[in-house]
Amino acid sequence: MRTDLMAVACGRRSADLYIENGRVLNVHSGEILSGVGVAVASGRVAYVGPSRGMIGPETQFLDAEGGILVPGYVDPHAHFDNILSPRRLAEALLPLGTTMVVNDTLAVVARFGAPGLACLRAAATSLPLHFGWTVPISGWAPELEEAGYFAGLGLTDAELDVLLADETVLGTSEFLPWRRLLAGDQRLIARLDIARRHGKCCEGHNPGARADHLQVIAAAGLTDCHEALTSAEALNRLRAGLYVVLRHGPARYDLPELASLVMKEGVDRSRLMLTPDWVPPNDLAAFGHMDHPLSAAMEAGIPPLDAYRMASLNPARYFRIEGQIGSIAPGRYADILCLNDLREPRPKWVMAQGAVVARNGVPTPDWHGLDELELPAYRPSVLHASPADFRVASAGTGDVLVPAIEIMDRTVTRRIDLHLPVKDGVVSCAGEEGRVMKMAMPHPEGGFSIGFLVGVGGCLGAMSNSLASEPYHTLVIGTSDDDMAIAYNRMIELGGGVVTVQDGRIEAQLPLPLGGFMTKASAADVGAGIDAVNQWARNNGSNLENAFLTQHFLTYVGVPFFRMTPWGIYDVRKHCFLPPILNQGSEEDAL
Known about the structure:
The chain is of the alpha/beta class. It is built from 17 helices and 31 strands.
């Protein structure tokens, strides 16, 4: 292949394709080159310059019509190992300009282990979208695992060693239990060393880490972090030698706060990258993908050249694949976008691996084919629910004090204690419509664990979900025990997914028949299903901006502060479960 590229570059062989009438953003030199063409052979760039000596009778032409050619966008920290199959993901992302995603696989490994990851990787191999993978070295909650609570599947040392030897596995997934590194956890350090021996990157996930904490984290072998919320926090990460991933997406819009770091004099901008982190399918059409943080970066004052480098060259350098992707230069894959203007990062057309795969936001039809992904069936520990399963019994009389999770924003929660009445031996939410809901998760040994929830607003009958964030993926919330049972049972019938019910009627449903985890439906159809869930919540008075996303994170024990699990409400900071009913509580803390 290299010999062929050299032959094309010096005119001894004809190019397969020649792009003309465009200007080229050279992210290496920082220039916009005019009067040049781009010669492509075997899916890669062979030449960028004024010569036309490699044009032969078989060479195809592509007219850029005066547009600016920029490298395809690279997402260095994606969570697309659920909901959409790899093929459907490629159909959704390529028209937006993303030509490579580095996928965190913590979710698919937690649910299906190494075999599930193998299915996902196999389904992605023949697609024009480049897939890189990071693999988990720890579970979601090691402290729970050590205490005997199942916290998802994982990879053995042998599996990890084999995977990290593969060139498409670029490193280890975001490392959640970073505080255990501060305590010198030798088991986790040894797992990081496996990655380091293979020369792979080790992603961090260090919310709230102080400057001195970051020094320990970097010494342990972590190489990046995407959890800086302020420019001061991001600068501390740079000072510790970490790469910094600037996040701006539906879960958190952080760029306005972080932009000042990029423009700070003397800062090495080559160690900065952009990511949306996670974009639910319903947000892809309106929000976009990497094109959105690019726009936000430039709107926040970041120079366009720096923004485009953070979305292409910088992640390629970080993952040590600069010779393959990240720029329009000889030897790299011909992943090229044509823009009207640098400040309009949504492309007119997209080339991936030397072929045009999208025009004007629509995939071209020639690479579409069968979606061959298969995953194990979804089978939670409870296969049928009755309304009685969602009742909290109490031997007390009058009012009891119960702990509850209060939603503060899309992902942040806090504890609040509630006085609730006991009627006929059951804790009642009567009179609390619009304020107090129940949460229920199947217990591994049968039945449900129940908790209380505040901050959703409205009077929502029930929402059942097999896609709540790992490791505890099956969750039901609602104000009606009857509706909760209907929603849960319908979800089981679908083989997994999301179901909403109001007054005994099914209002919205999104089937996820691949392990209760994924679907072969298009991003547009999945997005419509999620939009219907959110519309149901709004129609019934919820004040949540995105009910689907908020419920998704209620079981995510990787972030503070209180989360729902199959054993009840878990205090993430104190590493303990809250009792379903408190024997005593402060009146000042109760509503």
